[in-house]
Amino acid sequence: MIRVLLVDDQPLIRSGFRAILDLEDDIEVVAEAADGLQGLALVKEHLPDVALVDVRMPVVDGIEATRRIAADPALAGVHVVILTNYGLDEYVFDALRAGAAGFLVKDIVPEDFLHAVRVAARGDALLAPSITRRLIDRHLTRPLGTGTGAGLEGLTAREREAVALVAQGLSNDQIAGHMAISPLTAKTHVNRAMAKLRARDRAQLVIFAYESGLVAPRDR
C-alpha cells in the first residue's frame, strides 16, 4: 500500500486529489495539512511514502518543508513531490535542490497523476527528458563548461554514463538497453553513483549531472 500525505493550503485542491487517490486499491491518503509546518508534523507522525507538497504555502513554504524532510535521516523513505500551479516557475528548481523527487502541475489529468504517485513511491524522479531540459535551460545560469566536476573523479566510467542517462530522463530499463547491460546492473550503477555523490534520489543526480558539466543543457 502506498501511503500519501497531502499538503496544500487550498481545501478544494486537497479534496480533488484525495477523491482521485481514494478510488485506488493500492493507495491510501494518511493525512492532510493546510500549511508546511503542519505538514512537517504529519510527515513525522505518519511516515508516508509520498508527500504531495504545494510549493507556495503560509507559515512554512514547500521548499523549506522539503529541505527539512530531506535533512532528517528518520524521513529518508519519504519522497516529496512538489505541486505547482504554474509549471516551470522560479521555485521548482530550488525545490529539486532541496530534495524533492519531482514536481506536478495541478491541472494534471487523473491518469498521469496516479502514475506519478506510483513512480515517486518507487523512488524514481518525476523528470521527463523535455522537462529536464527546460528546467536546466531556464534555471542553470552557470555558463556551459564551467562546472566544478566535483565528485566526478569518484565515479567509474560506467557510473558516469549511467548518471548522464538518468539526467536525460531514462528509466533503469532504458539505461540498461542503452548500455547493453541488465536492468539489475543498470540499477546497481545508478545506486552506487547516488551513494558516492550522497544524492538523496534521482532528481539530485540530474542536478549533479548538469552542474558538474557531465551533461550539457541542450544535449539530445
UniProtKB/TrEMBL annotation:
It comes from Planomonospora alba. Keywords: DNA-binding, Phosphoprotein, Transcription, Transcription regulation. Residues 148-213 form the HTH luxR-type domain. Gene3D superfamilies: 3.40.50.2300. This is Response regulator transcription factor. The lineage of its organism: Bacteria, Bacillati, Actinomycetota, Actinomycetes, Streptosporangiales. The modification 4-aspartylphosphate is found at residue 54. SMART domains: HTH_LUXR, REC. Residues 3-121 form the Response regulatory domain. The keyword DNA-binding applies. The keyword Transcription applies. InterPro entries: CheY-like_superfamily, NreC/VraR/RcsB-like_REC, Sig_transdc_resp-reg_receiver, Tscrpt_reg_LuxR_C, WalR-like.
